[in-house]
Amino acid sequence: MAGDLYTPRLHLRPLEPSDEDLYCRLYTDHRVMRHVAPPLSREAALRAFGLVLRRQVIEPPRSRCWILVSREGGDALGLMAWLPDPDEPGSAEVGVLLAARAQGRGHATEAIAALADVVFAATAQRRLWTRHAPDNGLAAGLMRKLGFEPVPEAVDGPAPLRWQLEREHWSARRGTVFAAPPATC
């Protein structure tokens, strides 16, 4: 699963040391981070980038991160992360962070669908989950489009909204909602 993934418009390649500038630009940009968290300082983003790189090589994996690259122009559009839940085996969080110019164009839909195809093909993975700020309507629409279901929360206030997607639900939906699964290598 740590390898490249392909969709009709995207090449998702594993994060590598040369992606430091892109990673830091995303995490320090207030337009990108407005529905996620306060932007990081450049120094905090550099530390986080180093940690992500180190976690990618640990087995069993603590996380995987891919860069979303346009297959048409070769532009790096953002990143996607998969983080296994240490408290719930078979469950993992997924998140996508897109450059402001790439938001609202279906890239996150393609990337998460490609990841769901791959991780749900593995028998140990049974659930993906995600979260977003309550005022992020684009993220809520994305979750519904992909078939994620809201997770009821007992917390009031600005806590993130959580969504989950079970393997069985994805398998039943996949053939009717999207085109054939992307090729992976």
Automatic annotation (TrEMBL):
GO terms for molecular function: acyltransferase activity. The keyword Acyltransferase applies. InterPro entries: Acyl_CoA_acyltransferase, GNAT_dom, N-acetyltransferase. Its EC number is 2.3.-.-. Keywords: Acyltransferase, Transferase. Residues 10-168 form the N-acetyltransferase domain. This is GNAT family N-acetyltransferase.
